[in-house]
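Exercise 7b. Backbone tokens:
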């Protein structure tokens, strides 16, 4: 039976509706990206864990691998915060830290681990990596939550609402950036022997 990729896309699409801003620091350099892969990863309420999946193509992947630290931020959907949320999304998700500093453009303070906390985010959890699963084109990181805070209470931004509000030129640029990322992922998937 051939794989019905349309059905697979319907089953798997939209399972994680909240875009998150991931930041880290490695060797004194701070960076971050946007991700739609965030999740909770423990049933123990007093010992929470978070998980993210990062593509090896992205600089943040190598930095989280190196430092073992990530801060996962939710963004705000409130009227007085939405512009800041879109700014974070476009800054971190629109270009690579390899092409220039992104964190310096955002309002931050240092978290417990030294990684930047985005002050205009809705909220965050800061985590130390406790396990990493290498799956060819990407790595799935699970981290123990060491700090958590609600910075700007209210509704959390979902990706559907964000796409409606993002400028068309930015979406075009994002789509263009996605092409080499996808090529790299395919190359890893179909040439790596586990
Ligand atoms: C909404 C959205 C979701 C994304 N989800 C992921 C993801 O789950 N994993 C990932 O590695 N990259 C994801 N990206 C892509 C990175 O954010 C993007 O490639 C970024 O420029 C990488 O920056 P870096 O090279 O500085 O790490 C997403 C981007 C957007 C805008």
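Sequence design result:
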């Amino acid at each position: 039976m051939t794989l019905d990729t349309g059905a697979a896309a319907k089953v798997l699409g939209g399972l994680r509706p909240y875009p998150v801003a991931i930041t880290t620091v490695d060797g004194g350099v701070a960076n971050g990206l946007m991700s739609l892969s965030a999740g909770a990863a423990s049933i123990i309420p007093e010992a929470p864990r978070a998980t993210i999946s990062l593509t090896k193509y992205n600089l943040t992947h190598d930095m989280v691998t190196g430092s073992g630290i990530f801060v996962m931020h939710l963004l705000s959907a409130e009227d007085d915060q939405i512009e800041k949320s879109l700014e974070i999304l476009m800054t971190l998700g629109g270009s690579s830290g390899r092409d220039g500093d992104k964190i310096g453009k955002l309002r931050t303070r240092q978290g417990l681990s030294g990684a930047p906390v985005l002050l205009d985010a809705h909220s965050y959890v800061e985590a130390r990596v406790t396990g990493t699963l290498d799956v060819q084109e990407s790595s799935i990181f699970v981290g123990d939550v060491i700090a958590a805070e609600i910075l700007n209470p209210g509704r959390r931004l979902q990706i559907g609402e964000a796409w409606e509000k993002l400028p068309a030129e930015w979406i075009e640029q994002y789509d263009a950036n996605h092409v080499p990322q996808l090529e790299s992922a395919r190359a890893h998937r179909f040439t790596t022997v586990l």
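Instructor comment: The longest strand covers residues 123-135. The chain has a mean pLDDT of 96.
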